[in-house]
TrEMBL record:
Residues 31-60, 262-291 are annotated as: Disordered. This is Lysyl oxidase homolog. Its main location: secreted. Residues 45-57 have a biased composition (Pro residues). It comes from Cottoperca gobio. It is found in: Secreted, Extracellular space.
Amino acid sequence: MMEKSRRREKLAFSLLFGLWLPCCLAQTTPSNAATRTPTRIPTRIPTPSPSPSPSPQPQTERLMVRLTGYPRKHNEGRVELFHKGEWGTICDDDFSIANANVLCRQLGFVSATGWTHSAKYGKGQGKIWLDNVQCNGGEKSVESCKSRGWGNSDCTHDEDAGVVCKDERIPGFVDSNVIDAQVDDNKIEEVRLRPVVATARKKLPIMEGVLEVKYKDGWAQICDLGWTIKNTHVVCGMLGFPHERKVNKNFYKRLKKRAAEKVSRPKVNVSAGGRQTSKAKANSKSKQSPAKRLYLERQKNHFHVHSVACTGTEIHLAACPLEFSKRNATSTCEGGMAAVVSCMPGPLFIQSSGLKKKPKISNNVRLKGGARVGEGRVEVLKDNEWGTVCDDRWNLQSASVVCRELGFGTAKEALTGARMGQGIGPIYMNEVKCLGQEKSIWNCPFKNITSDDCQHMEDAAVRCNLPYMGLENSIRIVGGRVPYEGRVEVQVGSKWGTVCSTGWTTKEAMVVCRQLGLGYSMHAITETWYWDTSNVTDMVMSGVKCTGNEMSLSHCQHHKTVSCQKAAAKFAAGVICSDTASDLVLDALQVQQTVYIEDRPLHMLYCAAEEDCLSKSAAQANWPYGHRRLLRFSSQIHNIGRADFKPKAGRHSWVWHACHGHYHSMDIFTHYDLMNANGTKVAEGHKASFCLEDTDCHEGVSKRYECANFGNQGITVGCWDLYRHDIDCQWIDITDVKPGNYILQIVINPNHEVAESDFTNNCMKCNCKYDGHRIWLHNCHIGDAFSEEAERRFEKYPGQLNNQIP
């Protein structure tokens, strides 16, 4: 009874306190509080001991978390939280892997692999926001975990906590952690160009206009007094443009002067009652000349910045020395006007810009493995062979040099830890130290690589700023369970409708996911009746055929007039997108080292014949007598991507082959072809994926897939599947091939049945010399490993054109 009585007293006190506190707050709130945006007022009740208590209730806005410090990779660093307009750290007291898991998920990673103490990534500055944090591990945000409360800490920055996250992104997670650019976000968040000439507003990208910066809930201008071309260079980079152009200031000065003259003698249409009519007001506003618009903007006193002094190497305007307007200042940029900026787009965006001369881009640097335009693993060309860049000291300055030389703006992100997949072949550069003004990464200081310096798991990558094209506004996916799947609905003219699924493949789905900024295409769906939740039923696009590299579905081939055999809404095309994808690549050296010829008796080839692994002439052979001549080799297939390679079909639909006693999870996993100089196939073979499994893996990676006992099939990231030379169908039947010089070509996942981040490295080629008795392979390489010049030489080496053995 005593216990119940105490509980009643406690409940009564809580109710009384809950009623009294709002009254007190209301009495002390200023009279103009109703006009303000409500903010959360954290209340602290003194506690007799420092034992952790639940943190304050989560803020209405999502808590911002970032990783920072040095040295670090993209998935590790000192943890900082943004609270009350200020970044601060977390103390390492009572820190645990559970805390790290919660924080890593907030950052978009699937989990944590570890945490650090004692300011391993350097000491932070400012507040230590949380101390004695104790999470269970399942919380959505660290602010839901127990702690001392915001700002209540007895730590110093020597105890700043850090986390190491697993390098695997949560599918569909949009925000990403950036290697800090030393940019003060409180100064300038965002910039834009607002064209003065009305016709320019309809054209994208916008390349010239009044420069405006995001300020509070609106936009403000920058005074052009002392404005230099270096400032313009920085702004253009932020907006996705590699180069700047000189502005015709006389044009804008004439507009300004003309506007001032017109405004001094305004003409007003008045009604019979002497008042300006609403129609006249609307007409006068809509018919404002460019000059008048420019003048009126100047009179609005929206000059947030009065002085900018960039050196030209900055990646963000906020990194430049700035002089801001004082809060109560009335200056309207005396003697100047709003800063106007003009930019030059890269080749990809030149088509819609009206420029006749296309700017050139680098031919010895490229981006590979990215889902979106302007992102990917950095690869450089040396001695006609492509290689990668190690991520040691990789930063935004170096990344921006790469972005600009490829026709994009400055870098949004400098990614480390093979975030865009691992490359193959050599690693050419380490510790690249660009200053920012270099024309090419090759002009920057760097260290040459030794065998002990770097591995491909440290390949550097970038995400570049791109001009705004508005492509995402003409397409949407609806009906899916999550935001990155659904039926494609496109806008043609002013009408929204579905897309015919006839001929709909992974390539078309790749373009859709890219256009929406949703990453890679995992599946191209041809029946979407289970996603039919939209009112849109008309089909507006059919016959879509893409190369897979287009920026928009409208850039792909398609019928001028809609023609679809299955026009019902349930057969509309759909997609499933993902932030990560697999990437298969063949070990070219393994093929070259294991090749040989075998004359195999026909009585040992019945199963192979049943699975169509022999040439057509085998059907006319005198079975079981005689033999077939087979070109044999081993295939070692690595998954260097960021997601496991798994068959599209589930195990319930795998096909059992009794002859060999195994299931086929994919009808065709590889193509084997022998071609002459004209590219004509003289012999061919194929390999069904009767057993996709992890034969072996890199150190620290565990096997996940094994075919035994009807197990799951696939290839784990960091693992490889080995098809030995001595198993059935691991060959090309060359019984009918004459002696000569040929090209051996092997293509993995040839029908693009399973999505990958990069299909260009699925093909491997070798020079092949056959004298009728023996065979030699040389120059085996992945299809995109050489320069175009080297590839042409490869295809025309001596003796191939006349098909004679040298």
